[in-house]
Amino acid sequence: MNGVNKKALGNKIRTLRIENHWTMNDLAQFVGAGSKSTVNSWERGQSVPSMDKLNKLATLFQVSCDELINAGKVNYLARLEELRKSKGITQRELSRETEMSFQSISFYERGEREPGVKALINLADYFNVSIDYLVGRSDER
Questions:
Q1: Would you say residue 2 has pLDDT above 80?
Q2: For 4-120, where are the E strands, in sequence order?
Q3: Residue 24, H or E segment
Q4: How far is it, in rounded angstroms, from Cα 7 to Cα 48?
Q5: 3-state secondary structure 49-91
Q6: Considering Cα of 25, then 31, then 35, then 39, what sign does the dihedral take?
Q7: Would you tell me how many other CB atoms lie within 10 Å of the CB of residue 57?
Q8: What's the CA gap between 41 and 69, in Å, rounded?
């Protein structure tokens, strides 16, 4: 799986396993992973579960595969793109208006890069929303 943050995925698996009071052996048995060492490898970010195992993990933990795969990824896509489109402007226009690079805005919307503090302040000010709203921590603008 290209583009998967192995470390974040591993941390998410570990957190969910511990929350459920399961050992690595338990988890390996539940999803047919073979042994504790396979689960350990996932949790340490050294390897990624196959799609089959990922589906089993998602079912077992009662989360979506997307939630597992995107663990730890702050995705500004939904809010930033939503705000930009509600103003009826393109990424290029937003780039010009905020004096930010087009490439940065594109990366932020795709969740490929996290904006720094200055960029967050700039975007929040431009859209007249709080930074918490922009990053999805609050639904209050």
A1: no
A2: none
A3: helix 24-31
A4: 9
A5: CCHHHHHHHHHHHCCCHHHHHCCCCCCCHHHHHHHHHHCCCCH
A6: negative
A7: 24
A8: 16
Higher pLDDT, residue 134 or 99? 99
CA distance 104 to 123: 12
Assigned token pair, 96: 């010009």
Tokens of 104: 């940065």
**How confident is the model over 99-117, as pLDDT tens digits?**
999 999 998 887 777 788 9
Rounded to 10 degrees, the C-alpha dihedral 27/29/34/39 comes to 0
Rounded to an integer, the average pLDDT of 29-33 is 96
Residue 139 token pair:
């639904």
- Cβ atoms 9, 71 nearer than 8 A: yes
- Shortest CA distance to 74 belongs to which of 113, 20, 122? 113
DSSP 3-state assignment of 95?
helix
Closest CA to 58 of 30, 24, 29: 30
Residue with tokens 């000010």: 125
- Give the contacts of 14 (CB within 8 A, at least 6 positions apart): 43
